[in-house]
Structure formats: structure tokens, C-alpha cells
Amino acid sequence: MTHRNLAFIEGIALMTLGAGTLWFAASGDYWSLLNPKFRIVTSLTGGSLTFLGLLHSLQGHSHRKIWASFLMALVAFGLWSWNLQVMWQTNKKGTTASASLGSPAGEEGSRISLGSRDYIKVNIGELYLMHDGTEKGPDPRQWIFRGVVRTNEALAAKNMFLVSRPVMNCCLADAIEIGFLVTNPEGETPQNGSWVQVFGTVAELLPEERQEKPPKVPSTFPLVVQPRFMILADSIRTTPKPDVNFLFQFAAEEPFHY
Q1: pLDDT value of position 246
Q2: Considering the domain 105-238 in this protein, what is its CATH number?
Q3: Nearest to 41, CA basis, from 14, 60, 22, 57
Q4: Which residues, in sequence order, are CB contacts of 167 under 8 Å at separation 6+?
């Protein structure tokens, strides 16, 4: 195999890799492996691989091979255009499966009324951060958040269960589940693994109720449970699993990223 033919094959391989990277960056499943805030980096990487592959494949070749290179580059350019359109829609719409970063709850109303009370939409990660390391008491406001039920016989005996949600900082390798212990006002524990909406307030656990380690419950990722505070639930409602179950963004004030 001549050096020119080898360069042509290497160039096509680079463009194929670039096209695949661009497709992944624009796909609706990007969030399942990487934090969507890195989408632009992935897109630039795919575009660079495609451009370098095109240059590499054009080193003194016949018209046939040159046209093959440009055809591959055209496919990659189409993927790049699609990628830009997806990112533009992400910034415009905010909350879709492809966008997946989540949008402030205020875009659909930052509160939900239940009876005579207004509950502030928040994600469980934001609620955890509010109470992490604080020497103050619990935030007295009334909250609503979503999460998956994790329970065992010991928690059920105390009329409690755990509600958690996965959080991704960088990629799937560093994902964890953040959770709160929740009292059960209905008395019947929701099914393990089901998704629920929790309406309630934050309360401080008694010293004897605090645990150094999270309870042993089934979880997809390493579990981190708020050690000092729990949720006094007013109501528990089942809810569909969200299209994007990971949490990526956290606000410090209302509107929060529900």
C-alpha cells in the first residue's frame, strides 16, 4: 500500500470519526453519557476531526478519491448543521430531551398550589445544597420535588422511605444519587423504583435518627443522603419518569430547576 493510499484511508477514518462525534453531540441521548454543557466541546471536536481528515485525505490523489473525500465531508457538514440547529433549539426551548439541561421552573410557573398552600418547585439537588453544611435550621418554606423511591424493610417499619435522583457533574462515571429521607403521610410506602412528587417541608432529624452511612437500599449509582435533615411530607403523588432523569443544573434562588 502506497503512502498516498494510506493517507487517504486515514483521512476517511478521521472524517468518519468526526461525523460520528457530531452525530453523538446532536443526538437526544447525549445527556445519558455526558453533561450537556459539554455539547459544544464535543461538536468542535467532531468538526476539527472532519476538517483534519479532509486535509489528510487530499494529499495528491486522483479526482475520484478527491470527490470521495468531499462527499464524506459533505455528510459531516450536514451533521454539523444539524448539530447547530439542535443546540439553537436547546437554548431557545430550554427543556426537551435533547436539551436536557433543564430550565428554570418559572417558565411554567415556579409554584404549585395544593389546598390552601403554595409549594415551590425545586430539584432535590438544590434542596440538598441549601442544607449541606449549614449550622442553621431547616428552610421553613414549602417545597415540591420529584424523585425515585428507594426503600427497605427497616425504613418501612419507621413509616419512612428515601427519595433520590441521579446527578451528573461531568459524565456517567462520576454520577451519584442524592436523596432525602421522607415521612409517609399516607401510611403505605410507594413501590420501590417508582417516581413520585413530594409535597412537604424540611425538618431536622433527631440525633438518634441520624446515620453516618446511607441506608442499604437498591440504587443505580453511589448514594448520598442528607444526614441531618428529612422531609415531612404533606402529600405523595406518583408521577411519570421524566425524559431526562439526571440533574445537571442547580439554582441558588427561585425559580429553581425543577
Answers
A1: 93
A2: 2.40.50.140
A3: 22
A4: 125, 175, 176, 177, 178, 246, 247, 248
Pairing of strands 117-121, 142-150: parallel
Domain map (residue ranges) of the chain: 3-93, 105-238
Q: Scanning the structure block, which residue is given the C-alpha cell 470521495?
A: 68
**Residue 90 Ramachandran class (φ > 0 left, ψ -120 to 50 alpha, else beta):** alpha
The number of residues in the chain equals: 258
Taking the C-alpha atoms of residue 193 and residue 242, their distance in angstroms, rounded to an integer, is: 13
pLDDT band of 177, cuts 50, 70, 90: very high
Instruction: Tell me the C-alpha distance between 73 and 57, whole Å.
Output: 11
Q: How far apart are CA 133 and CA 102, in angstroms?
A: 26
Distance separating alpha carbons of residues 245 and 160, to the nearest angstrom:
23
